[in-house]
C-alpha cells in the first residue's frame, strides 16, 4: 500500500499541521476540535500577515543549519532499544523532475523535528528518471546534492535508495530516453497474459541484452552507481551510511504481478505471471527445450487466474489437485523464480562491487507477499516470483543470494499483524516474516525493517516494536514516509510517543525536550528561514 506524500492538495495541510504543533503548549488540555480551530486561526493569521505562503512550485533551497538543540539537563543522545537505529523516509517526490527540491521549507522543518525527536537519519529515494532524464550518461544530481547538504547540516545520517523503477503516484517515469526506446520496442518491459506491458521497470530478461542504445541495463545501472559515488563522495562515511539498490517494482525484488485490488472487495487478488514479453518467452522456450519438454515453453500457465481473482477461481492454484503441484507446475515455477533470483544476484553483485571501497552498507528489499499465505500454494508469492509453497521453502535461495553478496535485506510490513488482516484473504504477515527471518539467521543475513503504511492506530506501533526489538531485533528500522499524514495531528503525537517508548534512556526522562519544545523550535527555525528567503 502506497504511503501519502506531500502533494498539491496537502501542502497547505502540512503548514497548518506544523502550526498546530507550534502552539501545542497553550492548548494541550483542549479537546482536538478546539485545538484545530484555535491553531488554525492564530498561526494561519501569522503566516498571512507575513505575506508569505507555501506554494506548489518547487523551491531551490539553501541548506538550513540546525543550530543548537534545546535540551533540559543532559545533552547526551538516548540509546535506542537493542541498538536499533531509526530513520524516516523523505517524500517520494522530494526532488522534482526539474531537479529542484520540492517542499524545501517543509522538509527543512521536518528534518529539524526529527533531529529533536532523536531520530538517527532519513532515507532519500533517488530516481533514475530524474537524474539521467534526458540522455544516457548525462547525469544531473543537483537537487539531491542540495538535499544531502540539508540533511548533513541538520545533523542527520542519510540512507539513499537508488530507484531504477518508476512511480505511478506521484508520477515519476523512467528516463525519457528509455521510455522512447520502450515506445518502439515494448518488449523491454514485462508483459502479462493479455499483452499489457508494465512500463515502470524493465524486464529482468533484458538485464544483459544491449537494448539501451547499445548498452545493457546492467551496464547503465553500473555507470549510474559510479556517477553517484563520485558526485556524493564527500558525504560517504560522515553522512551517507547506506545504499539500497532498486530491484524491481517499487524497488523490491519482485515481478510486477499485483497491479490492482480484487474488484469485489479490498482483498488483493492472486496477481498474474509476468512472462509474456518477447525476451521472457524466448528464455522460457530455451529452458523447456533443454529439459526435453518443448510444449512447456509455449507460454505461462493457461489455467491461472487473473490479477483480481481469488485462488480457487481457476485450476492452477487450487489447494488440492492444482497444476502448481504437478511436474509442469514445478518446472514453470522453478524457471520463473530462478529468472528473478538471477536478476537480483546481478544487481546486488553490481552494487556490492561498486561500493566496496566505501564505508556504506548495501541493502536490497524484498516484498512481504502475505496474502493467501495460509493456502497450500501461496499464489501471491508465486506470481511475484517466490517459489514458496507448503512443500517448498522459497526464501532459502533468496537469503543465500544476499549472503553471497554481503548485502543486508530490507523487509517491509513490520507494522502488520495477522489479527488485523481480512479473514477472507487467508493472510499471515507474521508467519511469512518469521519464515524469512529464520532463513536469514541460518545464512547470517542481517535484516532491516520498514513499515507498510503511516499508522494512526496504536496496534501498528505496538507491532513494529514487537518486530524490531528483543529476539527480533534489527539494526535499522525506517519509518515510511514523511508527508501530509506523517505530520498530521492524528499521527505525529502517536509517532512521538512510539519513539519515546522505543528508547532506553541513559538519562532521566526530564532531560529530554518536551514535545512542545520540539515543535516550537521547529517553527521558530522554519519561520526564521522563511523570512530570510523572502528577504
From TrEMBL:
Pfam families attached to this UniProt entry: Glyco_hydro_14
Catalysed reaction, written as an equation: Hydrolysis of (1->4)-alpha-D-glucosidic linkages in polysaccharides so as to remove successive maltose units from the non-reducing ends of the chains
InterPro entries: GH (IPR017853), Glyco_hydro_14 (IPR001554)
Domain of life: Eukaryota
Top-level EC class: hydrolase
Keywords: Carbohydrate metabolism, Glycosidase, Hydrolase, Polysaccharide degradation
Sample GO molecular function, one term: beta-amylase activity
Entry EC number(s): 3.2.1.2
A single GO BP: polysaccharide catabolic process
Signal sequence segment: none
Annotated family: Belongs to the glycosyl hydrolase 14 family.
The protein, known as: Beta-amylase
Amino acid at each position: 500500500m502506497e504511503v501519502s506524500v506531500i502533494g498539491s492538495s496537502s501542502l497547505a495541510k502540512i503548514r497548518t499541521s506544523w502550526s498546530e504543533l507550534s502552539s501545542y503548549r497553550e492548548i494541550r488540555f483542549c479537546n482536538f476540535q478546539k485545538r484545530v480551530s484555535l491553531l488554525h486561526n492564530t498561526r494561519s493569521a501569522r503566516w498571512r500577515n507575513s505575506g508569505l505562503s507555501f506554494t506548489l512550485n518547487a523551491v531551490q533551497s539553501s541548506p538550513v543549519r540546525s543550530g543548537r538543540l534545546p535540551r533540559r539537563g543532559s545533552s547526551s543522545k538516548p540509546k535506542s532499544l537493542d541498538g536499533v537505529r531509526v530513520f524516516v523516509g523523505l517524500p517520494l517526490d522530494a526532488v522534482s523532475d526539474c531537479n529542484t527540491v520540492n517542499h524545501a521549507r517543509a522538509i527543512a522543518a521536518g528534518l529539524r523535528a526529527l533531529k529533536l525527536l532523536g531520530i538517527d537519519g532519513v532515507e532519500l529515494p533517488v530516481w533514475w528518471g530524474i537524474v539521467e532524464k534526458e540522455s544516457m550518461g548525462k547525469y544531473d544530481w543537483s537537487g539531491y546534492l542540495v538535499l544531502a547538504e540539508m540533511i548533513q547540516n541538520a545533523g542527520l545520517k542519510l540512507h539513499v535508495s537508488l530507484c531504477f523503477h518508476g512511480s505511478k503516484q506521484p508520477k515519476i517515469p523512467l528516463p525519457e530516453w528509455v521510455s522512447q526506446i520502450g515506445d518502439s520496442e515494448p518488449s523491454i518491459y514485462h508483459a502479462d497474459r493479455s499483452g499489457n506491458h508494465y512500463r515502470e521497470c524493465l524486464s529482468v530478461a533484458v538485464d544483459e541484452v544491449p537494448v539501451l542504445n547499445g548498452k545493457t541495463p546492467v551496464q547503465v545501472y553500473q555507470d549510474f552507481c559510479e556517477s553517484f559515488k563520485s558526485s556524493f563522495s564527500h558525504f560517504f562515511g560522515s553522512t551517507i551510511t547506506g545504499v539500497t539498490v532498486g530491484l524491481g517494482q517499487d524497488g523490491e525484488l519482485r515481478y510486477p504481478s499485483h497491479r490492482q485490488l480484487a474488484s469485489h472487495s479490498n482483498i488483493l487478488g492472486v496477481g498474474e505471471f509476468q512472462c509474456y514479453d518477447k525476451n521472457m518467452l524466448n528464455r522460457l522456450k530455451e529452458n523447456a527445450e533443454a529439459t526435453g519438454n518443448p510444449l512447456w515453453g509455449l507460454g505461462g500457465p493457461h489455467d491461472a487466474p487473473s490479477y483480481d481473482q481469488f485462488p480457487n477461481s481457476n485450476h492452477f492454484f487450487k489447494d488440492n489437485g492444482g497444476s502448481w503441484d504437478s511436474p509442469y507446475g514445478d518446472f514453470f515455477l522453478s524457471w520463473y523464480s530462478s529468472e528473478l533470483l538471477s536478476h537480483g544476484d546481478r544487481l546486488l553483485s553490481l552494487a556490492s562491487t561498486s561500493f566496496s571501497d566505501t564505508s556504506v552498507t548495501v541493502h536490497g528489499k524484498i516484498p512481504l507477499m502475505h496474502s493467501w499465505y495460509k493456502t497450500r500454494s501461496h499464489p501471491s508469492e508465486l506470481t511475484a516470483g517466490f517459489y514458496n509453497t507448503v512443500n517448498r521453502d522459497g526464501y532459502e535461495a533468496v537469503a543465500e543470494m544476499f549472503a553471497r553478496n554481503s548485502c543486508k535485506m530490507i523487509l517491509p510490513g513490520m507494522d502488520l499483524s495477522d489479527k488485523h488482516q481480512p479473514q477472507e484473504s487467508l493472510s499471515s504477515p507474521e508467519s511469512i516474516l518469521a519464515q524469512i527471518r529464520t532463513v536469514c539467521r541460518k545464512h547470517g543475513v542481517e535484516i532491516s525493517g520498514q513499515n507498510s503504511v503511516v499508522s494512526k492506530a496504536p496496534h501498528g506501533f505496538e507491532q513494529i516494536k514487537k518486530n524490531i526489538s528483543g529476539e527480533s531485533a534489527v539494526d535499522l528500522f525506517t519509518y515510511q514516509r514523511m508527508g501530509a499524514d506523517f505530520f498530521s495531528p492524528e499521527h505525529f503525537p502517536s509517532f512521538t510517543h512510539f519513539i519515546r517508548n522505543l528508547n532506553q534512556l541513559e538519562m532521566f526522562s526530564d532531560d529530554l525536550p518536551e514535545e512542545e519544545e520540539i515543535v516550537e523550535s521547529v517553527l521558530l527555525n522554519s519561520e526564521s528561514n522563511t523570512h530570510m528567503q523572502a528577504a
